[in-house]
Amino acid sequence: MNISQALQVPLPHVLEKLGHLPLKEKHNQLWYRSPFREEKTPSFHVHSVKNIWYDFGEEIGGNVIAFAITHLKKSGNDHSAADALRWIKNITGVYDPIQINYQRHVPQKPEPKLVLRQQTKLAHLALIRYLESRGIPVILANKHVREVLVKNVETNSSFFAIGFKNEDDGWELRNPLFKGCIAPKTISFVRGSKINSEQIHIFEGFMDFLSVAAQTQLGLLEGDAIILNSLSCLTQSFPYIKDYGYKTLYSWLDNDLAGSKAVQKLKEFIATEQGLMHRPMNEKYAPHKDVNAWHMHELGLVL
Fold this sequence. Notes:
Radius of gyration: 22 Å
CATH topology of the largest domain: Dna Topoisomerase Vi A Subunit, Chain: A, domain 2
Helix content: 25-40%
Structural class: alpha+beta
Distance between the termini: 65 Å
Largest sheet: 5 strands, antiparallel
Number of strands: 15
Shape: globular
């Protein structure tokens, strides 16, 4: 097998041979748990068309040959380019990638517990009052969230909630008595009012985002915004930031231990991005735990 042939071997095929299947997929973007270490949240990204990979935990990536070299090196084996070519040939069992009849295994998804039945503008009085009690005007909320009717398949019951959509068509759900989501759970991206903005904001939850938006005249930040919906989704935000020309990143994460760890992880990523400055906003809303609690305090509201 020569270099040209090796570069045509599908990375998902190599990973599957090693026992790794994607945990998340959208179009040509595949996410795996890293094959180089133990982890719970997938941070290993593969672009199946470009046939390249990037490990956000290790901050390394490349093509199939680079993967083979890294794998051999971390396994304590010889890891020259020639060693990598032999390894790729051995693991695929062929000399010519044309011989590979690869059909990626797609694991069956479990039946969802919560199912979206309908979505409309906010009209349910209890939901509107809930938002207003958190300092969020309904006219602003209607720009970013929906009133959703959700069915619980297990109990065969339905309920109304405030729904905030993410990038994979999942939903964050809130009402006065419930906090949950309709899978899949991932980040949400909101474009700012300024085209090609050089600012990007990161929030932990959509209530925090709405709280800051409520303090602007337009109900929209000038810069783009990423809402994590969970700190476990932090690494999923990195592809939306990397090489997009942002100059300043504002982080609005919670003032607690988990938030501090996430800020540190964010700083480590930002250090790899030339020209990107980090501005943690925690002091602005301290000593409150999160942005919405600070926003409510500013308005004289009580949880």
